[in-house]
Structures are given as structure tokens and as C-alpha cells.
Design a protein that fits this description.
Blueprint (H helix, E strand, L loop, with lengths): L27 H8 L5 E6 L25 E4 L1 E12 L2 E11 L8 E9 L5 E9 L2 E9 L4 H4 L6 E5 L2 E10 L3 E11 L1 E3 L2 E6 L16 E10 L6 E6 L4 E6 L2 E10 L7 E7 L5 E7 L10 E8 L10 E8 L7 H15 L6 E7 L3 E3 L5 E2 L2 H14 L9 H11 L6 E8 L6 H15 L5 E7 L5 H10 L1 E7 L5 H12 L2 E8 L5 E6 L7 E2 L4 E9 L4 E7 L5 E10 L5 H4 L1 H15 L2 H14 L6 E9 L4 H10 L8 E4 L10 H5 L12 H12 L2 H6 L3 H8 L3 H28 L4
Parallel strand pairs: 3-13, 18-32, 20-21, 20-24, 24-25, 25-26
Antiparallel strand pairs: 1-2, 1-5, 3-4, 4-10, 5-9, 6-7, 6-10, 7-33, 8-9, 11-12, 12-17, 13-16, 14-17, 15-16, 18-19, 19-30, 21-22, 21-23, 27-29, 27-31, 28-30, 31-32, 33-34
InterPro entries: VWF_A, vWFA_dom_sf
Organism: Oryza nivara
Protein name: VWFA domain-containing protein
Length: 737
Amino acid sequence: MEGLVLPGGLPPPRPLAGMDRGVGGGGDASVAALLLPSAPMAYAVVTDPGAVDTPDVPSYQPYVYGRLDPPALIPLQMKEVDLSVDCALGEAAVTVRARWWLHCITRSRDCDVRIVVPMGDQGSILGAEVTVGRRSYNTQVIEVEDHTTENAAKADSGGLLKPQLFYLTISQIEGGADISATIRWSQKLHYDNGRFSVDIPFRFPYYVNPLPKVFMKREKIQLTVNSGFSKEVLLQGTSHPLKEKGRQGEKLSFRHEATVENWSSKDFNFSYSVYSGDLSGGVLVQPSTLRDYDDRDRFCIFLLPGGGNRKVFRKAVVFVIDTSGSMQGHPLENVKNAMSTALSELTEGDYFNIITFNDELHSFSSCLEKVNEKSIASALDWINLNFVAGGGTDIMHPLNEAMASLSSAHDVLPQIFLMTDGSVDDEHNICQTVKTELISRGSKSPRISTFGLGLYCNHYFLRMLASIGRGHYDAAFETGSIESQVLRWFRKASSTIVANISIDATAHLDEFEIDSEYIPDISAKSPLCISGKYQGKFPDMVTAKGYLADMREISIELKVQHIKDIPLDKVLAAQQIGLLTAKAWLSSDKQLERKVVKLSIQNSIPSEYTSMVLLQTLEKVDAAQKVKQKLKGHKGPDEPRRIPLQCLKLGFGDRAATRENLVTGFGDVKPLETFEILNKAAGCCSRLADCLCCMCCIKACNKMNDQCAIVMTQVCAAFACLGCYECCAELCSGSDS
């Protein structure tokens, strides 16, 4: 591969120094990160090297034999790209349209094409459409009655390669064909010091630019911002030259369109602020539609902390950290680093304690410690000695201990920060016990914020616990993002400026239901967004009341606005699905599950009770072709083929993995080819498969390579033949012999 030049004249990207084909070693994570796409990309999946050639001018390639296993991925040249971003409240809806050319496969051959799209922070896929010649594909969210159909899908058909990395594989595309794709997703807006910002991966490598260079390319970016309030929106910064095209009240539109020689080499970034000298916000209401899952109208209360430099509550903080065996290695090291930074950010007047838990419980101190240089230094030393992974997971005991220690806190805001990567059997009981305890303590109850690490913990349990505790929930699904995510979560939850918030809307409405269990406090680091359903008529103004850090009561007048420009159902859908799923999990309420299903299908967002599938249809099929397809038993355009997409659900925790202290994969998917080969091998002889049921043997089989698995398959087949021969001999020779 040293002198290889891809068809079209572009050399492939040079491999990094020290890069090995195998996985292992300390530098592999950073190397893999550099190889991941930083913009929407399409790759030719090449298994036969003889098919690689220029479609228009074939060349003579002698001595090209064999097959590539695993397949080679060749980046495709891109002809068009169009980025559209709609920002509203705290969400951004992103649409990318792109067209690629299968420039590296001769026209007489075909190959699969894999489209990979990196989404922004906390991105949720909303849908995709792909067109290749007469074939078209589009995603759809459907209710899943039989969950076994998902397991039958091809492992590489589509879904999430890793968190925030969505892909689709389109099969059998002829060389020289154009592939057009539209991908839609939503992502959270960052908020920092009164400024909203959105970051979208948009760095295209040089080798996706088509040759020759005389072919000029049009780069288009469209952006709309709708604050939802009658406040001035101020542009703070942008990575690409944007021109303001329109301003209608609180809605702004920008556009960038230019002829470029090369595609964008930097991510798209845009930041803006909504002018607000102090706490401000509004109530946005929208009537229900015929397609809505609920006939009640929808509302959203949105509060901005403003730039008034409100005083942050003094706090008593208890960190409850999981140090079970599954936390070993990078997860615990990243948590330790984040903890060190968080402790250094506590101020004089605060109190703190640290509890670690596995099968046992260990506390830094028997009581709350005042924050000073000596106590923080002692805590850091204690962390270095006691943050050692080992043992199982028990959450209820350390939570009770934390709540008991905070009962003695006065004139401060009590807070618990729980971090875990495991799922336990008594999660329902924990929620009910904590809820009862917090209700008994009233306004002085501790705030409970939760953080989930990886894929084995029950994120809906943690979300529900944070909702009950008026705290904040967050998660990290990749090892490299743990430290930054934990710090952002801690800063948001520990910067309370208004507590014990109440809304007086209930006095004017027949029904008023919020999606969360309780209204959380207002943080200086994040806007407050409360959604829900109501019945009746909102007054023109609504008052929100709460208490400041000096215990003075504050009233915030919120104007009620009936909006049409912001689709509240779509902007709030992901948040509502998460909260309603957590409620349905806790209550086992089938009606709530049905609401989640309807909300998921209506807004094309996959949930725990629905699945996203890729529908394949044929366009422009004449009558003769339809008859041929029916005679051959093929599905026509009226019967699209459904291909389930993988890894789009979190699930409700993996207790078996927690009990066995398996280190969470953090989005790293095990290769399924080995499992498929093992399944085939086991199918040759059911008696032999029964002997392979012990966990030790299964783990050993998971680590064998493909060649070993093939040998095992052949051995099993030989034993099966011998068994059949023995059975036939007994039948033919009779019972006497």
C-alpha cells in the first residue's frame, strides 16, 4: 500500500507513525480518534481489490487477486454539500444534504457504500434519506411488537458505530454512480456566561475534493435563530462568513453561499446571546394537533439566568462515587481527575464529604468538612489512596449515608452528587425510599444529581432519581469525554441561584402537568426549560416564585406567548421522551408507554419501545418489472424492505454485567462476525452446543480469531457426520446387531 494512488489521482491519507493493524496499547485510542470522520463522509466498502478502478477511464491492473477481510474503506469524493441549522430555545435541528460520486469502482462492478455522519454534542438522530439511481431509502420509526426481528438484521446495516456517530450501509452500488443523502439530527446548544453556541462537525479531509481543480464547488450554510422571546439577539461569533438575510421579531436568518476550491476545513461554530440584564423568560404555549399523542395543549417555561451576577447558594456537598470492579482503568482515573478539579472549585463557606462504595462503604470523614486549603489537600490525598476499583455495586446504603450526613447542614443548600456505571436490583425501591425521605424534609431536602458512566447502568433510573431530587442528570458514553462531562454537570448543578421554584399557573387552569417530577432550581450555568401539558386558558402573565441565596423571596413575571414559528413538539420531543420513559419505567404504566410510542413515532425519534428502520423502495418501476418482481417473489415499491438499525437504544441497565463487574464498553461494539461463526458452529451439533454453555468456555470462544473458529466449525461438522453415520448404522442393521 506504500505507493498506492486512488483513482482520480489523489493519494490516500498517510498512516500515522507506529500505527498497527491490531488493537491494543496506550496510543490506540488517540490514533482511532484521528481516523474517525470529522464531517459527513461516504466510503466504498471494498472486498474485491480487482473492482478498484476509475469508472470513466479503466486502467490495466495486473496481478490483483484475492479478497480483503476486513474490507477496505475508500473515502468517496463529494460533489455537493448543504448545511442547515435551526436554533430554538436550547436545541438545534441540523440537516446535512450531500452528494458523493463512487469514483473508485469500475462501472462493470459494484460495492457497498457506508455513509457516516458525526453528530454534535448529545445528538439524537431524526432521520435519513438516500437516493441511488432508481433506488431510494428512508428511515422510519415503528413500534416493535416482536423484538427478535432486530437481532436478525445485518450487523453493518446502520445505526450508531459509537455515540454521536451515525452510519448507514447501502448495498450493491455500481461504479460511477451518484449517492445523494439527507441526514437530520438534533443536538443541545451549549450555554456559558449568557452565550448560546452550536458546534457541528464540518471538517472535510483534502482527499474528498473532486479532481480536476477546475471543477468549482458550491458551499451552502443556512442558519436560523429563534429565541422565543421579545428580546434582542446579538451575534457573538461564527466560524464561517455569514450574512444576515432577515430579522422578524425574535427570529433571525443567516446565509453563507460561496464558490470554493476545497470543502470546509473547520467545524461550523456559531454563538449568540439573548439580551437579558437579569432573570427573565416566558411561557410559550401551542395548541395540540390531530397527530398529537395527547389532546391537551403544550407549554414550555423557559428561564434565562441573565447576566446580573446573582449570588450562588452556599452548599454542603456529598460526592457518592462508585468504585466497583467495573470502574477500573480509565473510567476511575477520569472520575478522579474530575473530582480533584471539582473540589478545587468549592469556595470558603461550603462544606463537603466524599463517600466511595462497592460492596463496602468508605467515607473521607465522619461528618461534613469545612472547605479550606487543609481539608481539600487531605481530601485529594484520600482520593489517591482510596479510589481503587474492586468489589460489587450497592447504591442504597451510600445514598442513605449521604442523606443522613446532610441532615445536620444548616443555612446551606444540601446536595448529593452520585456517579455510577452499574445497575442494581433495588432501583425501584431506591426511588420510592428517596422520594418519601425528601417529601418528609420539605424545602430543606437535599438535591440529588446523578451521572451515568457507560452503557451498563440504568440511565432511566438515574434520570428519575435526579428528577425526584430536583437535581441534574447527565452521562458519558465514551471514556475520553468523562472528565469534561462530569465537570460540566457538576458546575451546572452546583451553581444554584434560585431554589424552591413554584408557578402560579395552576390557579388559572383546569389541568397543569409537567413532564418532570418536580421543578428543578435555576442554575447560573444553564437556562431552565420546563415542558408539559395543560387544559384551560393561560392568563396573559404568569408569576414564578423562588428563594435567593440570602433567603429573600423573588418573583419573576413571565409573559405568555402563543407561538407558531417554533415547533414545540419537535424541539421538546427528545426531552419529553426521556422523562416519560423514566416515569413509565418506575410506575410500569402501560398508558405512559403508549404515550412514549406515539411521541416517538410522531417525531421520528427512536425510543425504548420503538425502533428505527431503513425502508428500501424502487422508483419508476413499470408494469412489466412489477410482474417480474412478483413472479420472483421480490417485494415491490408497495412493500418496502425494512432493515432495523442498531445501537439506538440505551436499555434499562445490564444487571448481569454489573454483577460480573464487566468493564463497560463505552460505545465500543464487539465484532459480531465471531459470534455469527460460533452460532453456525454450534448449530452443527446441538449436543456439542449444550456442552459450550459455561461462561468460561464462552469467554474463551469470544477471543478466538476467525481461522480458529472456522477450524472449530469443521471439527463440529465432522463429529456431526460421525453421529449421523452411527445413527444410520443402527437403523439399517437392525436391533439384533
